[in-house]
Amino acid sequence: MTTLVSVLYIVAFVLFIYGLMGMTGPRTAVRGNWIAAAGMTVAVVATLLLPGMGNWLLIALGLGIGAAIGVPAARRVKMTAMPQMVALFNGVGGGAVALIAWVEFRVTTGYEAEPLYVAIASLFAAIVGSVSFWGSGVAFGKLQEILPGRPVTLGRLQQPLNIVLLAAALACAVIIAAGGRSEWLIIGVLVAAGLIGVMVVLPIGGADMPVVISLLNACTGLSAAAMGLALDNTALIVAGMIVGASGSILTNLMAQAMNRSIPAILAGGFGGGGGGGAATVSGAGDRPVRSTSAADAAIQLAYAGRVMVVPGYGLAVAQAQHAVREMADLLEAKGIDVAYAVHPVAGRMPGHMNVLLAEADVPYESLKEMDESNSAFPQVDVSLVIGANDVTNPAAQSDPNSPIYGMPILHVTSSRSVIVLKRSMGSGFAGIDNALFTDPKTAMLFGDAKESVGGIVEELKSL
């Protein structure tokens, strides 16, 4: 039986890695998900074959409850709510690891007869898992707008409080590792770590949420790997390390895309809630805002040679991806080249726009990364910005006093003309105004993105 379990674990690892390879592009992402899910199924079955698994009724009950909650939630969630679902499900993983660490403490009577490395790995898993659970809960609340999207901070007390909480969690862990048996110690570890998760994520604004989600995902993976080490479970170690490593790499890439260090992001204070702002733009002087209509936008697009669509969270909120694909089909039928400029942190989670456009069957070849898009903008006749804000804000390059100064952006102002589809002149997640809206090249088409694109589609059909 032990040999069979080892063979099944190897099969699961191969499926994990092969599935992860499929995540490199929208075209193969669905297949990659199914392959990785098959790998997890094999790993679960192999684990259940281990001797002394315990109460089968409780195991079946847990699987049933999890499936009853997870499957309908995943099937019914809208693309606009995908970031918060990812944050919530990721947090549940971290919470499960923290609870397993607590159970392990109780079962072993405070790791009394266990090697020191088991206690250290389990306590590490408890701290990181609890941070991930409660931090992900706060991220979910911000994305769901249950909590304010703006930074919530205690000011100068914020960092000292975080240090005190970390010291408390570590102190309890050290006492346990040194032989402490009181269950209040492990509860202290979990509570202090949970407060750290809350206090670290609360001061982080909406603009940094893509980085936060990937960072918490990496934390969950690392905590699972540590728990696998404590439980001597190879599958948990490998799966956790894959998640932790990929999440860490993605976090670093997201931070680079925003030209911000991870410590600066964790320090908080960046990113408002994306609320409605005034119709004036800082630094724009008295330049007027030029508005347009669906009919005029359609004419402008119909006479263009190259069109670059720049998607943002507003496109996701309006569920306008299918209308955008229909518009692109009509333009391409007229011989117009249509491509999509996708910023790495557009939306509210890594890859949000890629997944959204893939849902509408937008060809993968049409999706252009930031560097490729910026090289192409000077040859673009019309840039159609749909709901994107901070990732197109010229202040990132022109205003040293701007909080997003230095962040790489899409150079839509290099194109011959710009049409921005937006509900209002409101600011983005960074909470600052966008000088693009008053640029002489820019025309604003106000309204719901789906309705605006639908209006353009109807006008194109009549041309």
Automatic annotation (TrEMBL):
It catalyses: NAD(+) + NADPH + H(+)(in) = NADH + NADP(+) + H(+)(out). It is a multi-pass membrane protein. It is found in: Cell inner membrane. The keyword Transport does not apply. One of its GO terms (molecular function) is oxidoreductase activity. Residues 6-458 form the NADP transhydrogenase beta-like domain. It comes from the Bacteria. InterPro entries: DHS-like_NAD/FAD-binding_dom (IPR029035), NADH_DH_b (IPR012136), PNTB-like (IPR034300). The chain crosses the membrane at residues 6-25, 32-50, 56-74, 86-105, 117-140, 161-178, 184-204, 211-230, 236-255. Its main location: membrane. Its EC number is 7.1.1.1. The keyword Transcription does not apply. Pfam families: PNTB. Keywords: Cell inner membrane, Cell membrane, Membrane, NAD, NADP, Oxidoreductase, Translocase, Transmembrane, Transmembrane helix. Gene3D superfamilies: TPP-binding domain (3.40.50.1220). One of its GO terms (cellular component) is plasma membrane. PANTHER family: NAD(P) TRANSHYDROGENASE SUBUNIT BETA. Belongs to the PNT beta subunit family. The transhydrogenation between NADH and NADP is coupled to respiration and ATP hydrolysis and functions as a proton pump across the membrane. This is NAD(P) transhydrogenase subunit beta. It comes from Prauserella isguenensis.
